[in-house]
Design a protein that fits this description.
This protein is of the alpha/beta class and 509 residues long. Helices cover 52% and strands 13% of the residues. A seven-stranded parallel β-sheet has the order 3-2-1-4-5-6-7, with helices on both faces. Strands 10-9-8-11-12-13 form a six-stranded parallel β-sheet, sandwiched between helices.
Length: 509
């Protein structure tokens, strides 16, 4: 037998061996796929039977909101309660459920907190389903691969929610997109989502690819070419999974033009996506009187003539104490402002008031760190912290504010910015995201506020605002208040109900 024949025989034997090995693997794969399909179908039938039993018991459909931090007191929570209020007013026959991880409070306390903090009273009852494992979506549990860890954790938390209550319509109101396929394909529910901030965005990819250190890109990664490349690959793969999960939503609502651009790029659901600006209580702030131009001019004249009156300037920030809000930038910029106006120290007083919600011990520790920074910079008596304040106190502080300060980079919207505008403060926000695209934009041919990017920019802008003539400052305030009417509670409710109407009409009554 020639060498060529021996080689051919050898190849035939190898092919026969591979086929003997491959055939069992193919059969095993088919069996596993069949078992998986049967398991999914069985679970779906079980969940549907649970929903049918619930419908028979309640006699009405159920709309459930997934909001594990519904007692946190931030802008996202105000969206939740205003959305529920709108649904209950339009569809009083619908049962409303909220999935929450706030185990330390009762349902009555949660509703009372919504009334005190947001001035939102609901016209109907709300059923709360308490989730015992909210820790699965907390970033502290995942020091590395945080996005992936939280997303996987949200699936387990969603499973806990689904097994306790199978709704007819599921609304993810906090940005846990990976729960959407779970409720749609296993629960057989209609699903909708309100996106405050994309879990991952093209801006985040740019930060990593450009090796730019940010709060979500540590220095040791940005300084290492290999780690930056690895993180970029991880982010790209995660973006694909995030887009696939988000595309399961039947209706997608986003809170700003900035968020819209990113969601359209990632979820590819253009025909199902619309902008629904968050509800801002502008009507509750517009009764705050804006200091008359004549009164300001009188104060300035008295100051120039050497009068004893001391001008009081209050810089107020409204933002939860989370790392991305960048309160450190606010304190450092305020320090530079104080230094620049040191010559006027005897004729004016400056104070910085930081108002915001604390969700957990990590947020409270962050406040302690910020207090320490204020002491370190010699601002101990000038910087005040107001945590989890009721609505009346928030209104009093904004009524006294000269400047409304906001420093988050790529803020998705910025309810705090709108509140400051409606209250009559001169707004100074970050030159990015929602404030730049939607809020601090020209209105009726004039400016509605100011934008900055770094410590010096913020200090310069605050100094410029305080040096403006009374007439110019008053005009900016009035124009900003008129512009803020675009973001009222009523506008939100109308847009939210219009977006939800197709799904609500499918619910059997």
């Amino acid at each position: 037998m020639s060498g060529h024949d021996q080689l051919a025989l050898c190849l035939c034997e190898i092919t026969r061996l591979l086929w003997k090995l491959l055939l069992p693997l193919v059969l095993l794969t088919l069996v596993l796929v069949a078992v998986l399909v049967l398991l999914v179908a069985g679970l779906r039938l079980w969940f549907q039977s649970n929903r049918a039993a619930r419908r028979a018991r309640d006699g009405r459909p159920t709309v459930a909101f997934f909001h594990p931090y519904c007692h946190a007191g931030g802008g996202g929570e105000r969206v939740l309660w205003c959305a529920i209020r709108a649904l209950q007013n339009r569809y009083p026959e619908v049962n409303v459920v909220v999935y929450t991880g706030d185990l330390e409070v009762s349902g009555a306390q949660i509703l009372d907190g919504a009334r005190r903090r947001f001035n939102v009273a609901l016209p109907g009852p709300v059923e709360f389903v308490f989730l015992a494992h909210r820790v699965l979506v907390e970033p502290g549990l995942f020091p590395h691969f945080t996005l992936l860890g939280q997303s996987v954790g949200s699936v387990f938390l969603g499973w806990d929610a689904l097994t306790q209550c199978v709704p007819d319509l599921y609304v993810d109101s906090m940005g846990y997109a990976f729960t959407l396929p779970l409720f749609r394909y296993l629960g057989g529910c209609s699903v909708a989502s309100y996106v405050h901030y994309p879990t991952i965005s093209t801006d985040m990819l740019s930060v990593v690819s450009e090796r730019n250190p940010r709060f979500n890109n540590a220095d040791y990664i940005s300084n290492n070419l290999f780690l930056s490349a690895a993180k970029l690959v991880y982010y790209c793969l995660f973006a694909v999974l995030y887009g696939a999960a988000g595309s399961c939503s039947h209706v997608v609502m986003v809170n700003s033009s900035w968020t819209l651009d990113h969601i359209l790029a990632l979820w590819r659901a253009r025909d199902r996506t619309c902008v629904v600006y968050p509800p801002c209580p502008v009507e509750h702030f517009t009764d705050i009187p804006i200091l008359d131009q004549e009164e300001e001019e009188e104060e300035e004249k008295e100051e120039e003539e050497g009068g004893d009156r001391k001008r009081r300037y209050s810089v107020v920030s409204v933002a939860q104490f989370r790392p991305e809000k960048d309160h450190r930038l606010q304190i450092r910029a305020f320090k530079k402002l104080v230094d620049r106006r040191a010559a006027l120290q005897g004729r004016e007083t400056l104070r910085l008031v930081l108002i915001g919600g604390c969700r957990d011990q990590e947020d409270r520790d962050r406040v302690l760190m910020l207090r320490g920074l204020s002491q370190e910079l010699g601002l101990g008596e000038r910087v005040e912290f107001r945590l989890n304040v009721p609505f009346d106190e928030l209104k009093r502080e904004l009524a006294a504010a000269t400047i409304g300060l906001h420093t988050m980079w790529n803020e998705h919207f910025g309810i705090g910015v709108v509140e400051c505008m409606a209250a009559g403060a001169v707004v100074l926000a970050h030159k990015s995201g929602g404030p730049r695209r939607d809020i601090v934009v020209p209105f009726e041919g004039g400016a509605t506020g100011f934008l900055a990017e770094d410590e010096d920019g913020y200090a310069d802008a605050m100094d410029r605002i305080l040096r403006l003539p009374a007439a110019a400052r008053t005009e900016i305030r009035r124009r900003a208040r008129q512009s803020a009417a675009r973001f009222s509670d009523r506008e939100f409710e109308n847009c939210f109900l219009a977006a939800m109407e197709p799904l609500m009409n499918t619910l059997e009554r």
